Amino acid sequence: MWKWYVSKVGALLSLIGVDKYFEKDKRLKESMKRLYPGKRPDIMVRKQWQQRIAVILFAMLCLVVLTIVTLLTPPISRIDANQRVSRGEEDVCLWVMACEKDGVSWKKKMSFAIGERKLTDSEKVELDSWAENYLSSQLKQGLQPDSCAEKQVEFIWETEGDRWKVTASRNDWEKIMYFQKEKAVLSREQISQATVRDAIGRSITQGATKDTISLPAKVGNLNLTYGDVNAGKDYSFVFLALFAVGILPVVWKEQQKKREEKRKLQMLCDHPELVNRVMLLLGAGMTVTGAIERIVMEYSQQRKRGLPMRFAYEEMSVCFQDMKNGMNQSRAIEDFGRRCQLIPYIRFATIVTQNLKKGSAGIMTILQQDADFSFERRKEMVKQLGEQASTKLLFPMIIMLGLVMAIILIPAFMTF
C-alpha cells in the first residue's frame, strides 16, 4: 500500500515537473553514490525525495484530519447536554442566556462557587461587618454592585416596598441586609438577572450532595441556556502533528548520517577478508582481473541465496562491470578506491594498480602486511563497538536497579 502511494506521488511530481529540481541536491547525490553502488545516483535521489514528500503529504493529511476532528469535537466543558454542571476544584463560570418569547433578552457571565471550603466563624464575622459598610458606601454613591471581586462576595438585590433587601453570599456564608431606597432604581434587566442568579443559586444549594447539579432551564418567562466560560478545545494533537512535520528534516539528516556510518563500519570490517581472498586467488596463479571476476561471481551467487548487501563487494562488482565495458584495468581499480572513500581501500587499489603497471614482484608481501594491519584495526573496532554496547546497556540497567529497589523497599515501608 505504501509503495503504491509513493509511486503515485512520484508520478504526480513528474507530471508537474518538480522532480527535476531534486537532482540539485548535490550532498544527497554523493551519498546515494556511496549507498547504492552501480545505480544511477540521480534516479536514487528522485526516489529518496519522492519518499520524503510522500511522508510530508501524509503528515499534512493527518494534520488536517486532526484539525477538523478537533474543531468538530465539542469543547471540554463541565456542563453536559442536560444542563448539569459537574463539581470541580475550581469555581464554575457560566454564560447565561435568557430568552423571552420575543427573542434574546440578555446574555451575561455569572460565577458560582461549587465545592470550595467553608468559611471559618471569624471570617464570617468579618464579612458581616464589611458587607454593611461596603454596601452603605456604594449606595451613597448611587451604585448597586452585583459582586465584589476582592472579597469574592455576590450580592442579590430584591425590592420590598420602599427598601432594598440585599442578600450577600460567599460559599456557605450568607447575610441578609435591608437598606432604604435611594434614587437609584433597578432596571428590568437587573431585576431579571437577580432572579436568575437566585434560581441558579437555589439549584446549586439543592444539589450540594450530588455529583452533578441540574441547572434551571426556565425561570419565569425566561428560557435559559448555559455555556462554560472556561471551556476550550484540546489542540495538543494538532501541535504534536506540527512538531512532527517540523522535525522531519532533522530526522532525515540523522538517518542519512547513520546509513553512512553503517556503510563505513561494514566496509572496514570487510576489508581484511577481501584482501585475503585477493591474495589467495593471486597466489593460485590467477590474474587481477580473474581474481576480481571470481570474487564478484561468488558474491552474486550469495546474494541470490539471500545474503545481505555488502558495500565493498558491490563496489567491486561496479569495478568489474567497468572492466567488461572496456575501461582500462588500472583506471577501474583506481575508481574503485575513490568510490570507497576509505584509506584502506585506497591503499589496496594503489597496491593492485602498481602490480598491474610494474609487475607482481613483492605484491603478496605488501598485501599480507596490509591485511594484517586491517585485521588489527578490525579487532580494535570490534572492541570499541563492544564498549559502546555496554554503555548503551547502562541506562536499562539503572532502570532495572530502580525497579528492584522499589520491589524491596515498598513492602518494607508498608509494614510500618
Explain this structure.
With 416 residues, the protein is of the alpha+beta class. 61% of the residues lie in helices and 14% in strands. The protein has 13 helices and 10 strands.
Précis, in short:
61% of the residues lie in helices and 14% in strands.
Proportion of residues in extended strands: 5-15%
What summary fits the major beta sheet?
4 strands, antiparallel
Gap between N and C termini: 60 Å
Alpha carbon gyration radius = 41 Å
What gross morphology would you assign? Answer: elongated
> What sequence of helices (H) and strands (E) makes up the elements?
HHHEEEHEEEEHEEEHHHHHHHH
Count of distinct strands: 10
What keywords describe this structure?
416 residues, 4-stranded antiparallel β-sheet, 13 helices, 61% helix, elongated
